[in-house]
Design brief:
The protein is built from eight helices and 13 strands. It is an alpha/beta fold. The protein folds into two domains: 200 residues, no CATH class; 160 residues, no CATH class. The protein has an eleven-stranded mixed β-sheet with strand order 1-2-3-4-5-6-7-8-10-12-13. A two-stranded parallel ribbon has the order 9-11. Helix 2 crosses helix 3. The radius of gyration is 22 Å and the shape is globular. InterPro entries: DUF8173. Keywords: Membrane, Signal, Transmembrane, Transmembrane helix.
């Protein structure tokens, strides 16, 4: 889940740059791109982070690809894993690792050497999957070989002539018996039917053991890394925009936090209002997603503001280069994570951080100056 969330965050962080030309930042062999229509071309890169309206990868990616946009297209080879989210996601390049994709439409037309996880309104798989496959959607088409097990949750399924499953086929549906699995796909002894309620336990682990110390430490460090990287990307793509948000957050933290609370409350409240109107119920998911993303983005902005404050307290002044901004982003992420570990009060402090950050963003969007919030 953390992996699939990353591309979603990237597209939100890229929003200030969508009205500008594409931003392309290369660091340590990795590529960070954002803009309206963005294409990765030329020499191969290690890892790719790309977000925008229409994003395309045509250069080889030796490591992992993270892609988010309205239209996401992979046309090159990926040496490790692929993570894609958007309205339309097309995997037209070979992937040596796993593929995780989510969108209204998901198409996989080139071989996947690892596992495949795809969910959407329409899911179309026409290339072989060497590992296991988890497919969920309103309409799923499988016309390829799955080398491992298949978990399938769909209202409608089209089995192509090339559909084959070497392992077990697990069908999840309100009426599992309504989904027919041809004998050419898998023998009846390898088809297992489940109620839709069991879909949440598709990994076979309905209960989760309490994580150990090293697992918790890894999770903590992973959180710091994700927030730090996102803050760095935001600072590199739109330094002036982020500087304005940081100034708002630090100059009037209490009032800015109140604006964030009002903005978040308005989005949450709109869910009830839209549902009451009947016809507006189709917009309820938009309000829910907007509220979640405002909170997440607010935390990144708030953590960066804390990092800049710590940067100044250390006698280094305001960060004026990408390297300094990266240090501030990671420092803020680490401080925020440490604050979150405080018993009882930590979660309140974390909430304050994302409310202040969200308030700065809401105030900027609503064109409210610092004087207007006084």
């Amino acid at each position: 889940m953390r992996r699939i969330l990353l591309p979603i965050l990237l597209i939100v962080l890229a929003a200030p740059a969508l009205a500008q030309d594409a931003a392309d930042w290369r660091f340590g062999g990795d590529a960070y791109l954002a803009g309206r229509n963005v294409t990765l071309a030329g020499d191969a890169v290690q890892d790719l982070f790309i977000a925008g309206d229409k994003v395309t990868a045509r250069a080889d990616i030796e490591g992992t690809a993270h892609m988010a946009g309205r239209y996401v297209t992979l046309e090159s080879r990926v040496g490790q894993n692929f993570y894609g989210v958007g309205m339309a996601v097309e995997v037209d390049g070979t992937v040596a690792g796993n593929v995780t994709a989510a969108g209204d439409s998901v198409i996989v037309s080139e071989p996947v050497s690892g596992n495949l996880r795809a969910t959407g309104s329409s899911v179309d798989i026409t290339a072989p999957v060497a590992g296991n496959a988890i497919l969920g959607g309103e309409h799923v088409t499988l016309d390829a070989t799955v080398g491992g097990d298949l978990a399938l949750a769909a209202a409608n399924v089209d089995w192509g002539d090339g559909a084959r499953v070497a392992g077990e086929v697990h069908i999840y549906a309100d009426d599992p018996s309504s989904i027919e699995v041809p004998s050419s796909v898998a023998g009846s002894d390898r088809v297992i039917l489940h109620e839709m309620g069991e879909w949440d336990d598709v990994d076979g682990m309905p209960s989760v053991d309490r994580p150990g110390f090293f697992q918790r430490l890894t999770g903590w460090l992973g959180g710091v890394l994700v927030v730090g990287v996102l803050g760095t990307i935001f600072a590199a793509v739109a330094p002036g925009y982020l500087a304005g948000l940081r100034e708002r957050a630090l100059s009037r933290p209490l009032r800015t936090g109140a604006v964030g609370f009002v903005g978040l409350s308005a989005l949450v409240g709109s869910v009830v209002f839209l549902a009451m109107t009947g016809i507006g119920i189709v917009l309820v998911p938009v309000s829910i997603i907007a509220a979640v993303l405002l909170g997440i983005l607010g935390y990144v902005i708030g953590a960066y503001a804390i990092g800049v404050w710590a940067f100044g307290m250390a006698g280094r002044g305001m960060p004026d280069s990408t390297g300094d901004r990266a240090i501030a982003a990671f420092a803020g992420a680490a401080i925020g994570a440490l604050i979150g570990l405080i018993p009882w009060l930590g979660w309140l402090a974390v909430m304050a951080i994302f409310l202040v950050g969200a308030g700065a963003l809401v105030a900027r969007i609503m064109k409210l100056g610092v004087a207007d919030m006084a």
